[in-house]
Amino acid sequence: MFALRFFLFATLALSSYANDEVLVLRVGAIFFDTEMKLAEAFDAAVEEVNAINPSLKLDAIKHYLTIDDSIVLQEISCDLIGNGVVAIFGPSSKTNSDIVEVLCNTTGIPHLQFDWPPQKSAREGLNHQMTINVAPMELILSTAILDVLASKSFNWNSFTLVYEKGTNLNRLQHILAWKQLHKTGIKIRQFERGDDYRVLWKQISTANEKYVLLDCPPDILVNVINASIGFNMTGAFNHLFLTNLDTHISGIDRFYSKEFTVSIAAIRIRNYIPPPVHDEIDVFDNEVDDRFNSLETQLLYDSVVLFYNALLELSQRSGFYAPQTRCGLGFWQPGPRLVEQMKNISPKQAKPPFKTQKLHINADGQRDDFNLDVYNPIIDRVNYIWNKEFQLVSYEKIRENSTQAMKQKRLEDKVDFSQKPVRYKIATRVGEPYFSWREEPEGVHYEGNDRFEGYVVDLIYDLAQECKFEFDFEPVKDNKYGSYDPTTDEWDGIIRALIDNHAQIGICDLTITQARRSVVDFTVPFMQLGISILAYKKPPPEPNEYGFLKPYNFEVWLYVIIAMVISAIALIITGRMDRLEWEKPVENENNELEQENIWHMRNTLWLVLGSMLNQGCDLLPRGVPMRLLTAFWWIFALLVSQTYIAKLAAFVTSSKISNDIASLHDLVDQNKVQFGTIRGGATSVYFSDSNDTENRMAWNKMLSFKPDAFTKSNEEGVKRVKVSKGTYAFLMETTSLQYHVQRNLDLIQIGEAFGQKHYGIAVPLNSQFRSNLSVGILRLSEKGRLYYFRNKWLNTNDSSSDTGPEPVDDGKLDMESVGGLFVVLIVGVIIAFIIGVGEFLRHVQRIALKEKITPKMALKAEVLFLIRFWETKKPRHTYQRSRDSTSTGYSSMEQMSTMSSPDSVFLLTGHIVTHIPGGMLGAKFGGVWILVIGILSTVVFTLLFLSGDLPGRHDSSKLQEAVAASLGPVIFMVGASYSGCCRVHVVGFFTICMGLMGAFYSSMKLSSMYISPNYAVTFRANGQRSPTALVQSLE
User: Any stretches that span the bilayer, and where are they (predicted)?
Assistant: First the structure.
């Protein structure tokens, strides 16, 4: 058998050397029986290279494997070597044995690989010196993937790596070493072929992951991605990076639709693009060559071309011969030279050209250079190209030939939905003044974003212009901010919408907290604030005219009065007992010596009252007992009066204080007012998580209150404060608090703000657009827009109150507060005047008895002296002076009393006129005083007339009559004053004076002409005083 084989090989060698025109050499290939497409590609590649040069032909010998069995593989390899093959291609990486590499290394037969077998150690590499691998080195491929993800165009900081269990992770070794494997770095998840892929995506969605790096075989890629659609992982804000180099043949383009907007990218080895002939292509050639569409077929093709070009070069040299060896016997000497020749072949020398770009074999037989397409596999559009030297380069910057340009032109018909203008769905909650429904005027209906208004609405509109995006507002159904429920391990409100990918932005009066930052990201704050206390402002007490009596109650005032009376009586008794309190003896009318004691009830009460009022008294005691008693009374009076003044000042001040609580400390230390905050909100978290003693006490009190002190929203808390009328206080953010205080005069802020907080915009974790939004907020702040929004929505003056407008308190007391003092003064003056009149009448009675005259005469004499207020010295007997007077006196009175009635009237009138103060002033000062009185009266009536308060103001005769009635009597009254003892002149002037005063009647009274000019005759005929006539005239 061996002799027969040797004879055949010798014959083949002789025949090959004998024929100089065609050199036919055998090449072997090993495939699995499931790799029929590779076998077809191998045949096609051999066919194409055989057409390059007619002097060298390759004859392919193919063997197939059914199972990965090293013994079977060894037999097939030895059979190929025994058949005189000049090279062996394969098998693929499905085999775990390196028996082929070892056999080729011992026999000198070149071995070519076209995929990624298991990595070998350096020692094992000594047995693979005859092996050439045209597949890209996994180390370089791993570097390329890292360069792409770490570039500015991608900038993946945190993501989940998902791979199929049978995948070789060598090409991802740099990725695994790039980020830490923890919650905020890289998460790894594995799945197996045939699993329920929905479980995988549910886990990823629950983890709020938006960035997924997927390494999946192309034959199951569509099924895996299709399972993610139900978990909203293919939305506009999700990112998917596919590392399999055959993604383009997986059929993923079937997902092309407006709903599939995930930002997807994949990589592949960039194909060689031949230049067109004369810059023209056959536009009628629509045939697509799909024999080499997968990477394995392309690399197999490149390995055949590489080997053929090296063989063609080496076969033309001397010393080349066909192999004549077998396993364990002989070594083919041209084999190593053929391997070195393959390492020296450049892409430009290869004919036909390689299917992949930049194919070059290094000294170790590995391919360390290639170009990668970073493309969108849905529309097959290249966006970037990775190169070992230049890293990631934008495809737009690379000039393409006309063939690729034509291909690109065909692809322009497809729209890249992932690159359309970004449109964010914004989750928010209804709550003034940040976000509320806009009121629709009658006949107007708003749609879309026009339905809303508020602080965040204006902010988003400006932010959208700065950051170039579109948006749709979507209020969350539960109208909550977002709090964590430990029992269900779930979030609610806005935070939940972001976690579930139902929204991309969350904004309202949303406070940045550490708990929320663990599940979402926040932009830079757009507002700083604190926490304060919202309370009900009690209305000020009603003004009390007798409020000055409030410092002491009725019982105290009663005891003070009793003490004053008792002290006055004690002073009388003590003063009468003390000999030093009696005056020196004096003679009376009967020439008897008598002593007088000044300490009687009137004087002692005056002393007691003066001491109480801090006014002092000119009556001072002389004896020791009296002084001691007076000193103790002064001490008592001083304490009582000063205490009263202090209490009065405190009472006036306290009436202006609307609330006894001034801080959180006061609120915690009292038990009358309950207080609370929004359940699950940032303010409640501030108190529940605080280590401060006072905050912990406040939180424990809020938990203990019955009924529940927590509310669902700020609006509910504000309403509860107003309804409680001072029995409930609400803890809330200062911005919202000030907004409600400015619009409700019944509310007030208590104390200073504490617990600094910030409002920010929430976005899903690891969202790339977060930094863009932060920059936009900073720009709006620099432009003053944030300040403008705050003044517009939080600092307006629209206010309302259930108790009416709030009075302006300037610190001054009005008449309603001190009116009682004037009442006391008036009452005191009236009482004093009444007592004075009583004493005056008593004095007149005593004079009448003493002087033996009638009381009427004594009264007249005393009244006449009383009205002479310019006289300060009173004679002992006033009636005598009156009797001696030349103009008046009791004698004249007696004479007048004996006259007839008319004469007595004139004489009495003249007597009064010459003795009234006006007459005396007229005689003394020339009547100037009365003239001034008349002029002032005229001015008053003139002003009343011009202002319309006098009837008949449109008739000038009324004004003339009023002037005559004011000035006329003055003139004739002055004349009567200077008439002396002439009774005729006096009576005449006085009569004219009284007659002119009658003009007041005509100037003030209404006539029928003024009441009803059209019915004056009828009115007078029926009688001016008839109510029927008056009603009839009005009709």
Answer: 556-574, 631-652, 818-841, 928-947, 959-978, 984-1002
